[in-house]
Amino acid sequence: MANMSPKKHEMPVQDPVVRASNFQEVALGYSEQTALEEATRCLNCPTKPCVSKCPVHIDIPSFIAKVREGDFEGAYGIISKSSSLPAVCGRVCPQENQCEGECVRGKGKVPLRDESGNVAKGEDGKPVMVDSEAVGIGRLERFVADYHNAHNPENACTPPSNGHKAAVIGSGPSGLACASDLAKAGFKVTIFEALHTPGGVLVYGIPEFRLPKAIVKKEIDGLIAMGVDIQTNVVIGRTLTIDELFEDGYEAIFIGSGAGLPKFMNIPGEGLKGVLSANEFLTRINLMKAFREGADTPVQKGHRVIVVGGGNVAMDAARSAKRLGGDVTIVYRRTQAELPARKEEVEHAMEEGIRFCFLTNPTEILGDDKGNCVGIRCIRMELGEPDASGRRRPVEVKGSEYDIEADQVIMALGTSPNPLIKSTTEGLETQRWGGIIINEETGETSRQHVYAGGDAVTGAATVILAMGAGKKAAAAIIESFQGK
Q1: Whole-number percent of the chain with pLDDT over 70
Q2: pTM of structure
Q3: Looking at domain 165-259+417-481, which of 3.30.870.10, 3.50.50.60, 1.20.140.10, 3.40.50.300 is its CATH number?
Q4: Which of 151, 178, 243, 436 is deepest in the core (most CB within 10 A)?
């Protein structure tokens, strides 16, 4: 019988005061008992609405049913049929907008019950009804993956070869997902990674306190055990070109190079010392471990830090700056209701003492006579009519300018694909803003046998969407070589 508790079980977390000064993981995960109890909240809907919003189509009710039975390995087996990164996705996927957003348990009211299961009644004798929350699907996925990793060391083996070679450009989520599926189908796969450490945005973009890098390494080690070759420090478009890869015998190529080109506002003062992109700031901290004493890569530890933006990257940058000792304020041109960042990340940031300055937009970065940033000039905003995104467009309030002191300004305004591959690959068509144009059904680009997916196509998006794109392209590549 399903547990009709209206609320999902809370995730234990580090105390905000403690975690604001360390880079250890904030959310601590479910215990076995909590996972068992949360799993009983699933109604096991026959139509499986949650699956329809999962980009990799995990059979969610079935894996939760296994959790409910205490068969955690069986649950992992179901998840891993669809997802090659369950421990990652359980931590960083925006489940509230995907699977949990379609969960029937989160779409109505249920009777309030006491600890004995009795329905509470009001003065009128009718049941007291309260809002219900979706099942904690992401938290259960994380629990299952962590349980598997703790109890079952992988003994992966190289699948039988099908005689074909494929190249994957980029070792982020789309590249890893594509490489995994191709390797399982017998392809000899080589991943080419521009940086010195594989993992893409999982290692350079997402902080340790949200995604421990040991988890990413374990997933990558599993690929290597299947025979996937990973070559680092190879910049496709500079070290090698797409055409040279074909000349080297690769029969299909997947471009999962991400979106690492940061955006700026093009306002006065962005060239001052102390102004940098969130991309650079987070890469120095996450990939190069600049937060550690004696690290080879330096990072400015701002005293008064302004982060411009409202997405997950802005939260990551702000929370990282806080851990470096900064007094941090996030400046966002809309209201809290329009913040694109995950609710959980916003709540964690607020708990850690980060201030939010809503309906505010920078117009200029202020500097001293030595070229150092000393503050920002802002203007207040108000919300007008909805724009193309469906959100109300922010409009400047004339005469409302004011200044905020700051010795560091971090721009977290999104990223776009690097134009290097496009500029060195004849016949590869892209959008005006740089995204690679693909066949939405197969992931194939305008170049035959060249596929693409993830942020290189869509611009900055989510890990799970990138994984879904990598899997779709892999399926198309496998199909195109069947029978050959």
Answers
A1: 95
A2: 0.91
A3: 3.50.50.60
A4: 178
